[in-house]
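Final report, results section. Input specification for complex C-07:
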Amino acid sequence: MREKSEGLFYNVDWLTVTIYLLLMMMGWFNIYSAVYDPVKSDVFNMERLESKQLLFAVLSILLAFSILIIDASFFTVSAYALYGGVVLLNLLVLVAGTEIKGSHSWFKVGGFTFQPGEFAKWATALALAKFMSGVNPANLKKSVWTALGILGLPMAIIMVLQDETGVALVFSAFTIVLYREGIIQGWWLLVGLGIVLCVVLGIKYQDNFVYYAGSVVAIGIASLLFIRRRFKNILIVLFGVVFFIGALFAGPKVLEKMPEHQAGRIKVWLGLPVSQAIEDRYGYNTRQSMIAIGSGGAMGKGYLEGTQTKFRFVPEQETDFIFCTVGEEWGFAGSALVVLLYTILIVRLVFMAERQRSDFTRIYGYAVAAVLFFHLVINVGMTIGIIPVIGIPLPFFSYGGSSLISFTILVFIFVKLDSQRLLVLR
Amino acid sequence: MNQESRKFFIAGFALLVAVLYVVRLFYVQIVDDKYKLDARNQAFLYVTDYPPRGAIYDRNGKLLVYNQVAYDLMVVPRDLKNCDTAGLCKILNITIEDFKSRLKRLSGSLDFARQDYRSHIFESQMLPELNARIQERLYKFDGFYVQSRTVRKYPTPIAAHLLGYIGEVDDRITRKDKYYKSGDYIGKSGIEKGYEEYLRGKKGVQIKMRDVHNNIKGSFKNGLYDTASVPGLSLMSTLDADLQLYVEQLLQNKIGGLAAIDPTTGEILALVTSPTYDPNLLVGRDFPKNYSMLLQDTLGRPLFNRALQAMYPPGSTFKLMNSLIGLQEGTLTPQTTYGCARGFPLLGGKPKCHPHGSPTDLEGAIATSCNSYFSYVYKAIIDNNKVTRDTKDGYERWRQYVLSFGVGEKLGTDLPFDAKGIVPTSKYYDKVFGKNAWKALTLSGVGLGIGQGELSVTPLQMCNIVCAIANRGHFYTPHIIRSVGKDPKPLPQWAIKHQTMVTNKQHFEAVVQGMSSVMTAGTGRGVNVPELDMCGKTGTAQNPHGDDHSVFVCFAPRNNPKICVAVLVENAGYGSAWAAPIASLTIERYLTGKTNRPEMEKNMMEGDLIHKHPAGKKQTTH
Ligand SMILES: [Zn+2]
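Structure output:
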């Protein structure tokens, strides 16, 4: 069906591409600043992170071209194969990978490392789109377990076997896609959020009257659901009540079961009384990150003038905490602009997804938007103390080839699919 | 069920989160200043560049105070983790508990000390020897560094009270004056306090940046906000170091004060209080120890500057003042004679007087210091019916005369903490005797005619009165600093001539004639040096708490006077016994550069009125 071959950039969504390039460029400049050294900084020295990132950016752009060249049907046809391949890669890394920071989730090739967990995001998005676009609307309810399985498999491998909680949590973003497709209902998400909230409340106010207050609220919510559903699913309602109260009481137990580093971060985040050692260890990142961002003021300290980031008070500042450099050197103006650009991109992706005639493209588009949104919320939220420290990168910004390349693939597959929205009806 | 409408929920949720995050960023970056402060504390090291304090010279260019280098041991509590605390305590000779309590005082709490990035002075003003021992092992004392400062050094240990001392600034001042930061030094008394703004210079600051490991990473913005220090200005004082030392020796082992002023300029030549102390005691880390030692001497009170702050009844020297006022008012002429019946006849012989020829004229009355005569003089001034309506009016008129001589109010000298003296108001006597229930005679009775009663002056004020007499009617504000910095021109405020209310020079000549007779034929004849043409007046100030104070005022030469002196020696009896010889020797030393009366000099220097009490018996005033 290539009767109207209009060239490489035919119907490409330029707004998306522009924001992508803009964010990647801003990201590179901020990485350059984060690792800046007046003597050693050198764009053409492959020992330096700024030049490596420049190489990744060039590779990413080449990759974006390649994706635009490939026929879109390649992705629909080989979605499952790509998914299977990436899952295998994630299993392979457990035995063939190199240990970095205590986890077996990286391949080492030459001077470069590569994390297959990042690739699982777009592969899973493809598989999910392939599966859900093929489901008969009548069988929607039954398909939920298969859909959850598709995203649960890589999530489980990455979380349990690779011990990369942050990367794994991203897969929960796909529930937004399931919600949009009607596979799960809005109140499922509300119940899910409620349970998370109950667990958090249980942790924060352990042995407190909030248990009882929380129980009452839980029963109240359950009753509301019950009234709306009119005796239809009384068992589900009862389950809900039990879940909420259970989550409240389970909170402290969950905390006990958590590995020390996670429990420590959560305690510090919730402001629970902790020993000085725990505070120093797990509160340090957030404190330093907020000092860096907060000291930026309205207009920032100026490019390459950040003291908190440049003098390494902020840990991981070129990767997970790159937003600190933005906040410190560009101030509120810069950090708000970055949040704004991401928001425009995400809303644009939702808009693009909705204009598709193809279910596959729509579902995939939502998956892209959901993944980017999840990264933005977690990464920026963690640097400004809203969310506990979870190590995931800021898309296009953070240093790292695996994440930049996989985000490029993620976005450009959708740009390619979208560009053929008028040609095909899959 | 319309699934498509869910896109609005999804996009709306994304927008909601974005707004929430932007609001949070606004709060953290713009509203809350906490992070900006934390950032500065962490990444900036403010290195203060302390300028050398100005030196102080005497009137002949002799150095009185200069700087020597001292070292402050600085601590950054956060970096103490690997410090050899025990070793440091041993060198500083303190216990581990002392160490911890100091740290607690500096950081607020030991818990906070662990994250306290600020630099504090841990041990101040270490002298080179102690510093050397610390430096040897400084590499073991993580978190400590040494910062050099200057402390004062006095080549000759004189004029401790005049020069004053410096010390660490207290919180009251750091809160009020932004220039000072905790740990800075400030002049606390004397010239050091009075001329603080000139002496201190201007601190410089270098803003260094440091990384998370506390390594210095160069200057902030290449030193754009750094400031260079400006050295303090040196001061040229009016003091004659040689004279000051000489008088300090004369007054040793006595309690009292002496002021010597050049009447033509108001320049203070010597201002001595006794007992005094070695100014080098209040320097360096032994300051607190020595200071409390000086405080504990409650008998001699060596920190108290009697010449400037102690208020004494002026005694008979005040008869000069009343003579001048009487003459100016026209109630007295040099020829006026009054009788004496071993006391003031109008009040039944009170105040008492000693045997002398009677009646006398003014010159004779000054020479013999007749108490009766000046009680008459005083009554006549107050009862001057030609110009005054009643006693109260007469008293207030007299009082204004006295104030015009710089008594009862601050003189405006450049030395801090000078006392005002006391000249009671009429309200005071209303309170004591009842409204309108007191007459001129009442006041003569309490001794206002002869310098007793509630009158109080400082030795400096006493000397200033003598200056006004020597100048025949005016004086210049007594001061200790002539000029500041390289400009040798005297400070403009010292050129202001203060005219007293006694304006007729003839009246002064009459009084000066009396003062001359004091030296040639009167109570001062024992200490006269004829070739110096001295004029003087003895006084014996009654002291309700013990033996009388010995007082003497004088100037020389009679015409074109060069020096005025006022001396008060506590509990030393007659003015002629101690005060007069000391004043006379002081004048001789200043005018001739030497003294020719070795025996008198020896007696004065060796006379010890503190440790063995003088055998003078109580007498009426001379
Ligand atoms: Zn008499």
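The two ends of chain B are 121 Å apart (CA to CA). Chain B has two domains: 45-237, 241-617. This concludes the modelling results for the funded period.
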